[in-house]
Amino acid sequence: MKILLVYPKLPTDFWSFKHALKFISKKAVLPPIGLLTVAAMLPAEWEKKLVDMNIKDLKESDIKWADLVFLSAMSVQEKGVIEIISRCKKAGVKIVAGGPLFTSTHEKFDNIEHLVLNEAEITLPLFLEDLKNNCAKHIYQSSEWADLKKTPAPLWGLIEMKKYNTTGIQYSRGCPFDCDFCDITMLYGRKSRTKSREQVIAELDNLYSRGWRDTIFFVDDNFIGNKQELKKEILPAMINWMEEKDFPFEFITQASINISDDEDLMDLMVTAGFRTLFIGIETPNEGSLAECSKFQNKNRDLVESIKKIQRFGFEVQGGFIVGFDNDPASIFERQIQFIQKSGIVTALVNVLKAPRGTKLYQRLKSENRLMKDFEGSSWATNFIPKMGHEALINGYKKLVTKIYSPKLFYARIKNHLRELKECGQAKKVQFKIHLVHFKALLKIVFQFGIIRKGRFHYWNLFFWTLFKCPRQLPHALSLVVQGFSIRKTFEEAL
User: Fold this and answer.
1) Of 149, 129, 160, nearest to 36 (Cα)?
2) Are residues 372 and 305 in the same domain?
3) Same domain for 96 and 169?
4) What is the pTM of this model?
5) How many Cβ atoms are within 10 Å of 133's Cβ, its own excluded?
6) Handedness of CA 177, 183, 186, 192 (dihedral sign)
7) Do 292 and 390 share a domain, yes or no?
8) How far apart are CA 106 and CA 110, in angstroms?
9) For residue 388, what are the domain limits?
10) Domain-embedded: residue 148
11) 173: which DSSP letter?
């Protein structure tokens, strides 16, 4: 059996860091870990080929080679999925589809031969058994949750790892919180299910043996969903492994703001090599936090929580949302002030949208406020906002334009580096940024120090960092490029 695994192209968005990747000669941020894990669940004797359309084009010869095409996608990839389906139909090759897009909207894809939904650890073996017996069904579903301790490691041999900026490990699924705009609990539940210490170390060993020495993204939706297991089992084992291997990696992950309440956990994570945390802040407006059930962010000084996390040595990347029913007209200026005060350099601001299956989607449907299907771009919405669509989009544009203006953006970088320096972490925490090989450094200096607007702010940051905390210069330049990519992507969208 010849199996072609296809991952559709992601739309250009803030998360794609499209313009930043050009500086380091990479094609994509992260490989399709879910599809690589599915590949590891298929019979070993089957021939397998993977095409990540973010790296290379899908050729007609690839499709014709296959007996089956395995297709996985998120909601933001729907446009690409439709094109792939059409091409496979034309070639007469059957499709096996799964992943978040198909699990949440499977009724839209009746033209696909086999829908293997929910978690593959549960439904894929059922499909494979029926396929073996020539009685494969159209749809496979399950309300059970998978035991991740039985999940295999991704089949890394199917991709060219050097084409990616980071690679990844999934330690857990599920989130204990239940924000109404988020579909994670619908897809993976509220209990944090985890891999074992042995699995995590084995995956680190696997990546190390393949020569990987760059950043690893723990792709969990909330890495700290099971704090006790992290503190007792996973992080101590990771620290020992990293010390034995002379710290070959640095780690990025996603966590909730309540990590700031656990100093022991933060200290262990920094010691293990975690350097960047993405945290969903969403909004400084308490009414909007209550509206979306973001209770973990309520009744706390959000700025102080963020600064505390920063003082432990993390770069905090923040997710922000505008468009809640309880957002006042002043929310855009309040978001700007909050972002500047918090010192979050990479602030990813989105317009609120309602993915299918979420509580928000159901509420808006009952209120007859849904306009169209879910769109993945940060600047689109799929419902009628209470403040009015024009006011929301115009306010959003002003917000993003201002926070990524050179004056405000470079000021946040300096604030972030100052936090590291003043708390004594500048020497302890080293961000191993791989932008600083000579060719990339020349590109950065030429682009930001000579060609582009904001040259004064760039050179001010450059020399300030060089004299105040020179070891953080690679990190500072990396942030410059990230900000440029977000700003450029936004300008192109406008």
Assistant:
1) 160
2) yes
3) no
4) 0.93
5) 8
6) negative
7) yes
8) 7
9) 165-403
10) no
11) E
Please indicate, yes or no, whether residues 476 and 391 belong to a single structural domain of this protein: no
Cα torsion at 395, 415, 276, 7 (round to 10°)? 40
CB 398 within 8 A of CB 332: yes
DSSP code of residue 449: I
Considering the domain boundaries, does residue 369 fall inside one?
yes
Domain-ending residue, one of 354, 370, 403: 403
Q: Count CB-CB contacts under 10 A for residue 420.
A: 24
- The residue type found at 348 is L
State pLDDT tens for residues 137-172: 999 999 999 999 999 999 999 999 999 999 999 999
In tens, the pLDDT along 267-309 reads: 999 999 999 999 999 999 999 999 999 999 999 999 999 999 9
For 167, the 3-state DSSP assignment is strand
Tokens representing 9 are 């192209």
330/186 same-domain check: yes
- Tell whether the model's pLDDT for residue 228 goes beyond 90: yes
Do 386 and 423 fall into the same domain? no
Q: Which of 271, 266, 326 is nearest to 294 (CA)?
A: 326
Tally of domains in the chain: 3
User: Residue 277's beta-bridge partner residues?
Assistant: 253, 316
